[in-house]
Amino acid sequence: MKEEDTQDLLDLASELRWEVGENFHDTLVEGIYTDAAQIAQKTEIKQGEPNPYSFERKLDQVLTSKKYGFPIMILILSIILWLTIQGANYPSALLASFFLEFLHPILKTGASQVDLPWWLDGFLIDGVYLALGWVISVMLPPMAIFFPMFTLLEDFGYLPRVAFNLDSLFKKSGAHGKQALTMSMGWGCNAAGVVATRIIDSPRERLIAIITNNFSLCNGRWPTQILIATIFIGALVPDGFSSILASIAVIGVALLGVGFTFFSSWMLSKTLLKGEVSTFALELPPYRPPNLWTTLYTSLIDRTLIVLWRAMVFAAPAGAVIWLISNIYVGDLSLANITIDWMDGFGLFFGLNGVILLAYVVAIPANEIVIPTILMLTVAHLNLMGAGDGVMFELESTTETAALLHAGGWTLLTGINLMLFSLLHNPCSTTIYTIYQETKSWKWTVFASIMPVILGFLVTFLVTQIWQVFH
Amino acid sequence: MILLNQGYVLLFFATLLVVFFILKKYQYSLRSLLPFKYIEKSITEDLLKQLYHVTSSQKTTDFKMLSGALKIPERKILKVVESMTQKGLILISDSHVTLTETGKNYALSIIRIHRLWEKYLSEKTGFDKSLWHDLAETKEHQLSEEETEALYEELGRPRFDPHGDPIPTALGEMISETGTSIVGIPKGTVAKIIHIEDEPKSIYRQIIKEKLHIGAHVKILTSENHHVIFESEGHSIQLSTVVASNIQVVLLNSQEVYEEGKVRLSSLIEGEHATILGISTECRGANRRRLLDLGFIKGTLLTLEYMGPNQNPRAYRLRNTLIALRNDQADFILIEKPQYDRTGSL
Amino acid sequence: MTELEACDSCALNNSAQLLKLGINVDNADYVIALAGNPNTGKSTVFNALTGLKQHTGNWPGKTVTRAEGGYRYKDHKMKLIDLPGTYSLLSTSQDEEIARNFILFGKPDVTIIVVDAARIERNLNLVLQILEITDRAVLCLNLMDEALRHHIDIDERTLGKELGIPVIKCSAIKKQGIPELISTVHQVATRQIICKPHRIKGLSKPAQKMVDKLDKKIRKNYPGLPNSRWIAMRLLDADADIIKALKNGDFDQVLT
Questions:
Q1: Which of A58, A271, B221, C254 is deepest in the core (most CB within 10 A)?
Q2: Which of A12, A29, A291 is closest, CB to CB, to C44?
Q3: Bridge partners for B335 per DSSP
Q4: Contact at 8 Å (CB) between A120 and A276?
Q5: Which among A9, A27, A45 has the least Cβ separation from residue C207?
Q6: How far lies C48's CA from each of A303, A321, C172, C177, C182, in Å?
Q7: B8 touches chain A (CB under 8 A)
Q8: Among candidates A171, A168, A174, A172, which has minimal Cα distance to A274?
């Protein structure tokens, strides 16, 4: 069609718009609903019953009540997290023994048989392969348990009620109630939590949800928290109570994360993301029995495998880097040891140490490999016999790990600060990449990556200062 | 090993905090620190606008008053005035300043952008209305003529801004206002709000706190020297004369009826039924469309089924579907409770 | 069957448009869109039709997830596109824009509209809007079992007559009604069933007059455009996307 004809048409349209008045949209929607009501009346056959949704009403009365709403929500989430952490242990151990104990030596033998140069063997098998094996065995099982359970709750219709219950809290911090869902999803995996923010319509609130998702303690960080809490905090009290105290400490850190979510959402909505008022109009669908098998299948495909694949893509080069820094020597010292010495002063200042800082730098692809990296670096730094230079490992018992860490100069303060820093540091590279994918903005990706680290240093610094006042 | 003095680090963080709050507090006045040529345009335009408002209320002004009104040092104003006189925008006689025809047209084009942008903010974004004015104050110096016309088209060629002020056309024509102040209207009168002045800000905030808005119907209950009491959407509102005089109303025309039973949805109690009378004209843009799409349409029956743990949001059942709304959104939906139902059914 | 061949080519004719929307139509004889409100069991219908042979992706440039899959029926390959679940096509949220653009510019051979049988009045809002845009649609009355449990039944013959499109009662989770849905979709795709979709009548008289006036003008400019009335309504509502599409000449492409 010719341009002048189009202009002609648009002119007529705006002329008529004057006549029809500003609220044509209202007229249109009212017109549609009038038709809809007429058609519905002609076709709906009701076999009258006074209260056909009584079961749902009763369920809603309980699930959203002042008294039971929050306790039930916390209970359900705790059960899911407990099932995930406990349930993942066995398959994780199985996968680890396959990849790390069974396949790894075979590969090594194979490599020596074909006379692979030691550096290529180390680079590929001890570096890249080991990192991949580690990531798969510690990441896959918890995700494969967590996401389907989460999806089942979603399909049942419970999750919208969670958003409903928590909306007033999120509203106070300038965010949207649906952020409750992305936050909980973040306890499984931050990258998946960031993808899940798609359910939030408003770009401003979505950005808040994306930036603060990292404060949800993800699957990769729970084991670190539990291990360190057991070694350093559990040890403070007699044996019988140590596991209770350790659990309380871990839950405390997770709740601190929730606190930081609210606090930083509030800060963001008052400063950088000031502006548009949020609205909340959410359908609370009827409760429906979820479709078990379809859910299992789709949540495995849609969430678990996609995230795992991304993590693997980032883990492979990181494994190579970890191996390289431990095996490239400048003079007498490996690159890793030089960096550790160099970072030590800075680290101690925040109640951490050079090993921890370097581990967080090189283990950026996945929080899961932070502990193995720390152990490897500690051993290398102390010149002890570990699994070999640049080979990540984990020890069978907590006591052995504790002994090693104490030998590395760790104190209760180091433990507490590591727990805090594990909560408050940059997102893993999978999440960073996902944030970029979702926001398509370097600015926000950089901000979301750096802001938590700054907070982490601030908090660990304050803790160290207060600690030193009392000691 | 580098040992940093811990005191210095604390001091550094404290300084950062202080700088942050200073920047936040003075973000608007900071622009005067910019080199003069960057702010000349906006000072010129602000001056023209101010002069236009002064002229249209048939007053005169001098540099001192302008400097006070715009919060710009007189020194800078004088500097701008010089080039404005050269461009033929203003005339100066014994320190009184008047607008030329060119100046008046320029001023109108700035007012046009300002009001169009406020219209844009109200229709297409979710910014709170207390922010519209400040945002438009910045935007009015930035939009080019083409951008303004494109905006005008996109908004469907509007005639009024969200405060009820007429938007000048591209040729500088403007519909004149016909409303009267709500102060001094006799008791018992029913009227409709057509304009709420958005300056000064402190008064505007008081008005919007009462959720008063353009298009709302009011019924005057008492009108005395110091205050006015009136009813709107089921709420009785008392305003001091100073505040109320910033609200302009017209009497209802023959087709409009003052609906006695019209109340806000937020006043519904648990288990209670009601019929929707409509969505307040206050609720605009995407928010309004969303509510309509969800079925909050005139004539719809609904029930407040239950409230959230903090009474907010609340879940309403309509057309056999549960929909949760926050209370400030429910404020926009006007309903009629059954006791007012004229047909007596339900 | 010449009719059939003619229609085979219409999916292909439109492949450039579909490609622009990120849909690869290689090996597909017909493109089927799946639309509906959220919470109507749309994804269950999708799974029942495709049997999990699906893959997910994003709409080009958007963060909204897309699922697509396929199935075969009577030697025809059907490509099924799951559109985002929306309450309407009028609010111009990202989801709605995608769903609308797909039906408007992607011109699917059939649009399956999934509705919750227990809440048809509310669901009809979207149905009536879709029927203004496309005249090839099938209504899938899903969650029939749940509706019956709550003592709500639907007279599907009257509903079909009112809407002018085939209506199929389903309970996708139990696979009930799916074979009927598949064969009806095929009949609509091959033009064995010609739909006469309902057009919105409930507008006020003055508004109706304006719509007609503008509609006439659009039809003069674009003879043969099936959804001129809907475009007229969008223009009266100052829909910026439609105005832009007019200026870009997107509707010229729809006609080809």
A1: C254
A2: A291
A3: B263, B276
A4: no
A5: A27
A6: 21, 47, 6, 10, 10
A7: no
A8: A174
What's the alpha-carbon Rg for chain C, to the nearest Å? 18
Q: What is the DSSP letter of A454?
A: H
Any bridge partners for residue C108, and if so which? none
The per-residue pLDDT string of chain B (346 residues; one tens digit each, 9 = 90 and over) reads: 234 445 666 677 778 788 877 776 665 555 556 666 667 788 888 888 888 877 777 677 777 777 777 777 777 777 788 888 888 888 877 767 788 888 888 888 888 999 889 888 887 777 777 778 888 888 888 888 888 888 888 787 787 888 777 888 888 777 766 778 888 788 888 888 888 887 778 888 888 888 788 778 888 888 888 888 888 877 788 888 888 888 888 887 766 777 777 888 888 888 888 999 888 877 877 788 888 888 898 889 999 988 888 888 899 999 888 999 998 888 889 888 876 444 444 4
Do A43 and C52 make contact, defined as CB atoms within 8 angstroms?
Answer: no
Collapsed DSSP state (helix, strand, coil) of residue A340 = helix
Closest CA to B343 of B283, B275, B242, B243: B275
Note the pLDDT tens digit of each residue in C32-52.
999 999 888 888 888 888 876
Report the predicted TM-score, pTM, of the whole model to 2 decimal places: 0.81
Domain spanning C3-189, CATH class = alpha beta
Cα gap A315→A135, rounded to integer Å = 7
Q: Any bridge partners for residue B93, and if so which?
A: B96
E strand or H helix at B220: strand B217-223
Measured CA to CA in angstroms, residue A235 lies from A249, A251, A421, C189 at distances of 12, 17, 20, 71
Residue from C21, C10, C104, C108 nearest C57 by CA: C21
Tokens of A341: 């010495």
Of the candidates A144, A392, A1, which has an alpha carbon nearest to the alpha carbon of residue C231?
Answer: A1
CA gap B208, B199 in Å, rounded: 12
Q: How far apart are the C-alpha atoms of C230 and A379, rounded to whole Å?
A: 72
Q: What are phi and psi of A383, to 5 degrees?
A: 60, 40
Domains of chain B: 2-154 (1.10.10.10), 180-251 (2.30.30.90), 262-336 (2.30.30.90)
Task: Indicate the domain borders of chain C.
Answer: 3-189, 205-254
- Chain centre distance of CA A102: 30
* Segment 265-324 of chain A within 8 Å of chain B by CB: 271, 275-286
